[in-house]
Amino acid sequence: MEQLVTVVTTISDWLWGVPIISLLVLSGLYLTIRLGFFQFRYPLYIMQQTLGSVFKKPKGEGDISPRQALTSALSSTIGAANIIGVPAAIMFGGPGAIFWMWVIAVVGMAIKFSESVLAVRYREKNETGEFVGGPVYYMAKGLKLKWLASWFAFALMIELIPSIMVQGNAVSSAVRETFNGNTLVTGIIVAGLVALVVFGGMKRIAKVTEVIVPAMALVYVGAGFIIVLMNFSQIPEVLGLIFSYAFQPMAALGGFAGAAIAETIRWGFARGLYSNEAGLGTAPIAHAAAQTDHPVRQGFWAVIGIVIDTLIICSTTAFVVLSSGVWTRADAMNDPAALTTIAFQQYFGYTGSLLVTISLIFFVLSTIIVIIFYGSRQAEYLFGLKAGFLMKVVYIGSIVIGAIGGAQMIWNFLDLMLAMILIPNMIAVLMLSGEVKRLTTEFFTSEKYYKKDVAEKKAS
């Protein structure tokens, strides 16, 4: 068994290195060019149509508001990666990795936009009258490849079991370290709270995430912003580190071992892609349920998801770690994941470490809630509504198993299983990019959408 784990780990490490990063970067560049650099041409308009319209009544039909679809999608992307993944990227790739994280975020917008446009374009209603959509629907209806849709649905449904175990373990570990809590009790309490939400359907999930996600993001980003302001004089130096070492190797410094340019780019790209999940095909499942009058309008909300997740929250962590100087500590390389907590503790004492722990717990909790919804939708697609209910029970049981550290052996298969859903999804998005292009052109040239919005803006 150990030999199998070694082989799987070697294969997944190789896959998640140059092959998958190249696939995502090149796909993002291709889609950016094919869609006419829309994220660079219309940033203010995209802002107005999303964050600028949160208090307006949504247009079109759907089960949840576009804002709720965004917070649900963000629930699965905002998590441990934003808090403990960013300092790891800095320690292994240097400060320049943050520049490449920003680059891939902007390029990844075209991927996430395309996924969500396709999810709304090919969505349908299930037996209970709810809107359902995502990769399985655009593979089956858009590409007419039902076998690929079934592959994706089955792979995602199974992949989420170890994924939920890892999330459950992250919560129980955080509670044990900060509050000396019992891992089994923590697992049972978390499972109970999650069950109350997920068995209430998409509308209840949306109502919970639209409260948790903005509240915790504001608390975390707000506290991080205070640290950056306290180190205001360091900002030019931090920006200098990020931009200058994006294009040249950095020598060892304190606890930092040094990094070659290839490692800097790789870690920056990897952190950006892992954090915002562009290409995985999960966020479109949430966006498919949104009220909208055109697929492209909902695609804008997916773009804003990357802005919030990577450009705001990940950048906050990066600036806190770099401006506080914790990354140059002699023991920094021993536990890069702890650097954010150390930085917060340095400025706010015990309250700071408590804030990071509580943020992490809530981020992980909301992640579990939404990915259980994603998984149950895949079971529903393959085997019907009853199977969706059954998978929710399996996933909730996985929280408890993960919390006590059970089944750690299968966690090693996680990255390989993620590749099994990402690759077919990216193939589908690229093959359907012509439809995304058609819908985007239609939206920006029609008197019913972009031109009407611009005219109304001028009139007001």
From TrEMBL:
Keyword Cell membrane: yes
Pfam families found in the cross-reference section: Na_Ala_symp
GO terms assigned for molecular function: amino acid:sodium symporter activity
Keyword tags: Cell membrane, Membrane, Symport, Transmembrane, Transmembrane helix, Transport
InterPro entries (UniProt xref): Na/Ala_symport
Keyword Transport: yes
Superkingdom in the source lineage: Bacteria
GO CC annotations, alphabetized: plasma membrane
Membrane topology value: Multi-pass membrane protein
Database matches in PROSITE patterns: NA_ALANINE_SYMP
Signal sequence region: none
Cell compartment(s), UniProt: Cell membrane
Membrane spanning residue stretches: 14-37, 69-92, 98-120, 147-167, 179-199, 211-232, 238-262, 300-327, 347-374, 381-404, 410-432
Family indicated by similarity: Belongs to the alanine or glycine:cation symporter (AGCS) (TC 2.A.25) family.
Listed name of the protein: Sodium:alanine symporter
Origin species: Exiguobacterium chiriqhucha RW-2
Lineage of source species: Bacteria, Bacillati, Bacillota, Bacilli, Bacillales
